[in-house]
Amino acid sequence: MAGRLSGGGGFIIYAVAAATLVFVVAPLLVVVLLSFSEANLAIFPPVGFTMSWYENVIANEEFRHAFVVSVTLALAATATSFALGVPAAYALDRWPIPGARAIETMLLAPLILPILITGLALLQFMAAMRMRDAAVNLFVGHVLVTLPYLVRTVTASLKQVDRSLEEAALTLGASPWKVFWRVTVPQIVPGIAAGCLFAFMISFDDFPISFWLADAETVPLPIFLHDSMNKVFDPSIAAMSSLMILTGILAVIGLERLVGLRRAMSV
Predict the structure, then answer these.
(1) Do 149 and 198 meet the contact criterion of CB atoms below 8 Å apart?
(2) Are 154 and 196 contacting, i.e. CB atoms less than 8 angstroms apart?
């Protein structure tokens, strides 16, 4: 088996992996290239080179407002999902809670249900409850769809924790809280970081939930981008998309600096 993988089989695997990578990255590269085009319409291949579209986008007050809304919403949803998801995952993994399986299934349900249906259901529920603040509604909706990522990654990390270290610390007289903070947490940090990264990116790029819950005053960036495309499709749209891509790259780099990308993604 090893010989076949190191020979022709290995070449096929690498070729398929490279082709898959090109298939995923090529559309993003096209968008980035279009953002530097001098043409007034988004045509490929791009014509000339200019940074004016980025200047126009950054100078656009509506874009800046939408960007701030998305970043603030993503950070708030991620922080709340962290505050709720870590204790929930720990309790479900370590405590004999009645109906733990059902609770876990309910927490992970947003990963299974169609996101558009989830958004519509939230809209109907919030209308029935007379919740008219779009910012609050968006926050609740984004927490609902990001929480499962924290629960899932932290639960997976807890499964890999060396329980003998915890037992040794308890035997030596450490309190349960100190054991959790000094022994358990360092082992699950990669899972927490990966969950936070997933939660931030899911919230920042979310369209279906925001489509149902946003209003004219609280417009996340994906909604603003969608509305702009309906008006005119010029390279400024590609510039906005490129800035969203850059935000995602910076988030990944931040994760790498904090805990190491390979460790976080190995959970």
Answers:
(1) yes
(2) no
Q: Quote the mean pLDDT of the chain.
A: 82
Burial 7-37 (b: 16+ CB within 10 A, else e): eeeeeeeeeeeeeeeeeeeeeeeebbbbbbb
Q: What is the Cα–Cα distance from 260 to 87, expressed in whole angstroms?
A: 23
Write out pLDDT tens, residues 213-255: 888 888 898 998 888 877 777 778 888 888 888 888 887 787 7
Joined together, the tokens standing for residue 30 give 């096209």
Q: How far apart are CA 165 and CA 184, in angstroms?
A: 9
Spatial separation of the C-alpha atoms in residues 266 and 156, rounded to whole Å = 10
Whether residue 222 is preceded by a cis peptide bond, meaning omega within 30 degrees of 0, is no
pLDDT at 7: 53
Taking a C-beta distance cutoff of 8 angstroms, is the pair 181, 239 a contact? no
| CA proximity to 193, closest of 257, 109, 104 | 257
Taking the C-alpha atoms of residue 255 and residue 264, their distance in angstroms, rounded to an integer, is 8
Q: Which two tokens stand for residue 203?
A: 């919230």
124-157: pLDDT as tens digits: 888 888 888 888 999 999 999 999 999 888 888 8
Residue 42 near residue 233 (C-beta atoms within 8 A): yes
CB 136 within 8 A of CB 225: no
- pTM for the complete prediction? 0.80
CB atoms within 10 A of CB 49: 9
Residues 210 and 140 sit within 8 Å (Cβ to Cβ): no
Structural domains of the chain in order of their starting residue, each with its CATH number: 68-230+245-265 (1.10.3720.10)
